[in-house]
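Input chain follows. Return structure tokens only.
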Amino acid sequence: MCIEPATPLDFATITSIAQRTWPDTFADILSEEQIVYMLEMMYSEAALEEQTTKKGHRFLLLKEAEEAMAYASYQLDYLANTTKIHKLYCLPPTQGKGYGKALILAVAKIAREQGQKRLRLDVNYQNKAVGFYHYLGFVTVDRIDTNIGNGYLMEDYVMEMEL
């Protein structure tokens, strides 16, 4: 397993993983129409370009035998001394192999090296990943609903972990 920074040349790979992961991850939570809408909103080349150049998001790719299996994106100083994990997805057949944990540990290491004091993330409150995040030491600090347009909401727990 290798975790490395992603570049704009990896945007197609990141989008491909998202497209193969989201239907499985969100089928019981979101409508197919909302999944399609959100994938376009968050993973078009223009959206990824904006996230990295204007919003300061950084992506990591996890590879096994040179094949990308998972990714994470994060933003240093999202809040004072706080790194936000914006995205974390592993291909469905790889879930349970420790890839998500490895990516969180990689982001945590980077955050600590940059003097950050905590990690933060938002996760759909119905997503089974909530238990995974609790297992890793995150605590739920809030519940928020965010209007993302087209009549859709992101209904999330805000979770944090001290570093």
